[in-house]
Amino acid sequence: MNWRNLFKPSVKYSIFTLIAVGIIVGVAGYFVTQQTLHATSTDEFCMTCHSNHSLKDEVLASAHGNNRAGMVVQCQQCHIAQEPFNYLIKKIIVSKDIWGYLTIDGFNTQEWLDANRKEQADLALDYLRSIDSSTCRNCHNHIIENPPEAMKPIARRMHERNFAKAPDEQKTCVDCHRGVAHPYPKGR
User: Fold this and answer.
1) Which of 12, 48, 86, 188 is exposed most, by the fewest CB atoms within 10 A?
2) Could you give the CA distance from residue 6 to residue 18 in angstroms, rounded to a whole number?
3) Distances from the Cα of 163 to the Cαs of 97, 135, 155, 168, in angstroms?
4) Is the dihedral of CA 109, 114, 118, 124 positive or negative?
5) C-alpha to C-alpha distance for 138 and 78, rounded to whole angstroms
6) Which of 76, 87, 89 is nearest to 46 (CA)?
């Protein structure tokens, strides 16, 4: 058997071509995927399905939209984890919301939001618990290491006591701070 015949120039070029095309398609696919993920994480995109809900106004009226620093928190900063794996998982999970928008009668109405607020809020809280409120900690990480001077003494003590517990016994941010951007329904 002549081994040289196995690797004729045409075969080498075919393999090289396949590898080159694979790399180009992979890079292009990665770029398109990244652009799509980021484009679907903007407030403008979120408001295409929530345009008739009070959600944006609720944020603007809260400490996350009306604060001394003049910062307005964007939807994805609270609702989508920033860690790459959790980010991708959340994007896959919320893709079902597009189906809901297309199939649920009255989804984009304030009446639907009011009727389903508790269920939707509980889903959001469960998600935030599952990621240990990492979206909160992305902005409020100083609470643990260096609490602000303006923090009330009782709040400082509560945080210190919580962080002194074993990790599996600690509460996460949303266990105490629910309803900070959107009103949490009470008594339903």
Assistant:
1) 188
2) 17
3) 35, 18, 12, 11
4) positive
5) 9
6) 76
Residue located via tokens 């303006």: 150
Name the burial class of residue 80, with classes exposed (0-12), middle (13-18) and buried (19+) by CB atoms within 10 angstroms of its CB. buried
Residues in the chain: 188
pLDDT digits (tens, 9 = 90+) for 151-188: 899 998 999 899 899 999 999 999 999 888 999 887 64
Instruction: Enter the DSSP assignment of 169.
Output: G
Q: Residues 6 or more apart from 128 whose CB is under 8 A from it?
A: 135, 136, 172, 173, 174
pLDDT in tens, 83-116: 999 999 999 888 888 888 899 999 999 999 999 9
Residues 6+ apart with CB under 8 A from 139: 73, 77
